[in-house]
Amino acid sequence: MMGRQDRDQGQLFYEFSLEEVVPKDHLLRRMNVFVAGVLADVHQHLKPFYSDIGRPSVDPELMIRMLIVGYCHGIRHERRLCEEVKLHLAYRWFCKLALDDRVPHHSTFSINRLERFRESDILRHIFERVVAACMEHGLIKGEGFAIDASVMEANASRYHGKAPDELDWTDAQRQKRAVAEYLAALKAEDRRNDPGDGLGGESEPGSARKPPKVISPSDPSSAWTAKANKRVLFGYGLNYLIDVEHAIIVDVEATPARTYDEVAATRTMLERTRQRFGLSPRRLAADTAYGTGRFLAFVTEAGIIPHIPVWDMSKRDDGTFSRSEFRFDRRRNVYICPAGETLTTSGRVNSDHAIRYFASVPRCRECLLKQRCCPNMPSRRIVRDVNETARDIARRKMKTKAFLKSRNQRKRVEMRFAHLKTHHGFERLRLRGLSGARDEFHLAAIVQNLKAMTLRLLGVPPQPAYA
Predict the structure, then answer these.
(1) Considering only Cβ atoms within 10 Å of each terminal Cβ, which end of the chain, N or C, has fewer?
(2) Contacts of 328-337 spanning 24+ positions with Cβ under 8 A
(3) Mean pLDDT by 10-residue block, N- to C-terminus, for the chain (467 residues)?
(4) Which residues have a Cβ under 8 Å from the Cβ of 172 and sit 6 or more positions away?
């Protein structure tokens, strides 16, 4: 017999409890075990940024919990997030909202996020609290780290880029957060490079960089790049430094999507991790983009073993001798060619941070191997990086079993990026400017670490997080 729902008789009173409705194995319920401790000092941290008089504001812990829900489930628009929290019982429970409690208006939510939260650096504080919690539970071993960067598309049209000399900022444009932040950064950089302002002005040789060819008028801090899927766009680099034991993110940094900035950010993250948590890894794994002489020298001088392929462009494919076929005598500071002759140097460092070694022209002219060595030059030249010692250390490590193991473990940082884009729908930024990218990246790292900690310690079954 077919049943029919009877709507004429309604119940006047209901007994309802959110605590009973949310399943025991729900991701947010299990994650809340760690979130409660991480957010314990939020009010104390934000107190200097609120007035002592006036009407009570929206609870900042509520807004932060809503942000965690949003980035965990791929809801990054404030308006939609507020609507979802109204409707979803598990979201209400996690945000400590009863059925009749009001959800903050999306405009109030956005203002607090872009002002108080950014000025107080609360998201960075929460991220570090999560990392500290991971350390307390033994999820960070601190022996091996891996570093990598992924391009995230900026909230800027790739069709409206302009050359730097075509930009003429109007007063209305200068009032926008992203533009004002970019112009302030340019002014600060000019002051650092000005020798007459008392700030120095002597830059490292070879550090001068060319200005970008294309700038976005809406988000000028983003970089014009073709790294992401070979499609040219404006983007930011999401830099993750992870502990390879459980793939916990120990530091995160936002940079324009340029390799130079991404490699430079690694120094900042390694030093910051050492200062904040006392973590100094025994080894560091990275791809070839990080295998420059300067970076390898920084790593080795910090007492870290570089498991990084060397960026080496000295190999020749025209049949002539490559630099690797010349032996370097460190004691005499000379190169010895395959014929047994020496290449000497004046010791002068050129603008490329390299030293040139020259063979004798008469000896090269009489050498039987000249056609295989330098057929189009009077004598052979060898260019040696000033940090070649660090590069040699990295080359030796590339032949070890530990390097092969680190190469496989390095994939875990790439899996973090894939998980973020696939399960959290994080492929394009919403906020503009470098500070906006930094906020979004911190929230993404907070959520990923919380999920990893929950999975490792409480065994949450796999659930689709992005809808």
Answers:
(1) N
(2) 328/384, 328/388, 335/382, 335/384, 337/369, 337/373, 337/380
(3) 64 74 90 93 91 86 94 92 94 92 88 88 95 94 94 91 84 85 84 52 46 88 78 92 95 93 93 94 93 92 93 82 88 91 85 84 90 89 89 91 91 93 91 94 96 85 49
(4) none
Residue 330 in 3-state DSSP? coil
Strand partners, 240: 148, 252
**Tokens, residue 143:** 């022996």
Under 8 Å CB-to-CB from 454, ≥6 apart: which residues? Answer: 27, 30, 31, 33, 34, 460
Cα separation values, 8 from 4, 11, 13, 221, Å = 12, 10, 15, 61
Q: 234 CB contacts (<8 Å, ≥6 apart)?
A: 153, 154, 156, 157, 158, 161, 216, 219, 222, 223, 224, 225
What beta strand segments (E) does 123-278 contain? 144-153, 223-225, 233-243, 248-256
Beta-carbon contacts of residue 341 (< 8 Å; ≥ 6 apart) = 359, 360, 363, 364, 367
Cα gap 30→451, rounded to integer Å: 9
Cβ atoms of 262 and 255 within 8 Å: the answer is yes
pLDDT digits (tens, 9 = 90+) for 371-409: 889 888 899 998 888 888 999 999 999 989 999 999 899
| Rounded Cα–Cα distance for residues 355 and 346 (Å) | 8
User: Which residue's structure tokens are 């014929």?
Assistant: 339
Asked if 128 and 57 count as a contact pair (C-beta separation under 8 A), the reply is: no
CA distance 145 to 290: 14
CA end-to-end span of the chain:
37
The CA R_g of the chain, rounded to the nearest whole Å, is 28
**Strand partners for 146:** 242, 285
**Measured between alpha carbons, how far is 79 from 77 in angstroms, rounded to an integer?**
6
Query: How far does Cα 462 stand from its chain's mean position?
Result: 26
User: Cα separation of 380 and 344, whole Å?
Assistant: 11
Burial degree of 380 (CB within 10 A; 0-12, 13-18, 19+)? buried
Express the helix, strand and coil content of the chain in percent, nearest 5 each: 45, 15, 40
